[in-house]
Amino acid sequence: MRLAELSERSGVAIATIKYYLREGLLPPGHRVSATTADYDEGHLRRLRLVRAMIQVGEMPVAQVRKVLGHVDDESLGRTIRLGAALWALPREPEPADGQGEDEATAAARDEVDRLLRTLGWSTAWELGAFSPVHRSLVAAVATLIRLGYPWDAELMAPYAQLMHQVAVRDLDFVETHHSEAEKVETAVAATILFQPVLKALHRLAQEEESARRYGLS
Amino acid sequence: MRLAELSERSGVAIATIKYYLREGLLPPGHRVSATTADYDEGHLRRLRLVRAMIQVGEMPVAQVRKVLGHVDDESLGRTIRLGAALWALPREPEPADGQGEDEATAAARDEVDRLLRTLGWSTAWELGAFSPVHRSLVAAVATLIRLGYPWDAELMAPYAQLMHQVAVRDLDFVETHHSEAEKVETAVAATILFQPVLKALHRLAQEEESARRYGLS
Predict the structure, then answer these.
(1) Which helix (H) or strand (E) element contains residue A37?
(2) CB contact under 8 A, A204 and B48
(3) CA dihedral (B107, B113, B119, B124) positive or negative
(4) Which of B50, B95, B123, B165 is deepest in the core (most CB within 10 A)?
(5) Residue B99: is its pLDDT beyond 60?
(6) Euclidean distance between CA atoms A71 and B21, whole angstroms
(7) Which of B149, B209, B207, B216 is nearest to A172 (CA)?
């Protein structure tokens, strides 16, 4: 398809597409003449992904480029490629107390370790602090502890198991896609776009359950 | 306990506690002399909640006051009191395109309606657009549609059911608390503090599942 059609099908303005091309967020089209290039479904898919990262993820161009670098790195195994792409996405900020490891963080690390062993999540346990997602979890638990809220591994394990069931569905969905590139792109898009859906479903389920237990009056 | 002990047990500086007292975020202590007041476990609990909203939720004082107004409103039934308090918390912003209801939003509303009917979530369906959480879900789905990602009610229903299981655990936990005020306070604190934990558990579960399926290399 030509640039005009790519613009129409994606809903992204031609000038914006040209900007993405210049910034290297979108690979060049297939040259058909000195002034015309042709774009395929891969371009459309990539354009949607870039749009999701910039519009919904509110990510700066440099960070988008970094994520795409991992998405396109065929030298990596699938877990690492997926992990690298997802790890480069924005995360909950770690507490900016600048004091390095405090008491609450150390306690949180122990609690998360215990939880992962209980669950038998051996990779998550082995990767440990190498994984930014692991660090986010420790930071979130440290905040609970610091504010005096109780942390209870027995209470948490069933939550973790439910989130594992969610993750199994995520990966099943990713696997419905054919090419390796599509799989990784889908995982990145789903992580950005799907998180708000899941969060809203959670809050809506709380409302529904509350109404069932206590009524509406 | 005296102010000094309240400060020590909560980890909140005396000057900050005095500020919260002046701003009405913390009820006054029980006067024991012209210059001394006494604080109880309820003050400590409320102080932790205020801290969670301001530090973790990054909420302005006026919004904290509004949430606490709902928490303390004993004239409301539990679902409404809970709902009002949680609805006043910050949410994912609705898309600021300022064009009012566009095509994608209308389509998203239909899809969410269909999903809720499939699930049998009758309260969520009846409350519909009255609930800010419902509006957040419609907005998140509209974003998916606008960016050209498929929305599939069959794909979503099991996710919603898993989030319902999460919500059942949430309310079970809230019910372990004794007084009505504690129940509502716990629900608010959990919504703010627990969301990052759940999100990190989800991402960590994806890593774990990915490593199980594809290995680490």
Answers:
(1) strand A37-38
(2) no
(3) positive
(4) B50
(5) no
(6) 52
(7) B209
- Which pTM value belongs to this model? 0.84
As for the ipTM of the complex, it is 0.85
Q: Do B52 and A147 touch (CB under 8 A)?
A: yes
Chain B residues in contact with A137 (beta carbon < 8 A): 197, 200-201, 204
Residue of A nearest to B92 (CA): A196
Structure-token pair, residue B107: 């389509």
Q: Give the pairing of strands B37-38 and A37-38.
A: unpaired
Burial of A75 (0-12, 13-18, 19+ CB in 10 A): exposed
Instruction: State how far Cα A91 lies from the chain centre.
Output: 8
- Strands, DSSP E only, in chain B? 30-31, 37-38
Query: Quick one: how far is CA A187 from the chain centroid?
Result: 7
The alpha carbon of residue A31 is apart from the nearest alpha carbon of chain B, in Å, by 26
**What is the average pLDDT across B192-215?**
87
Closest CB to B80 among A121, A137, A216: A216
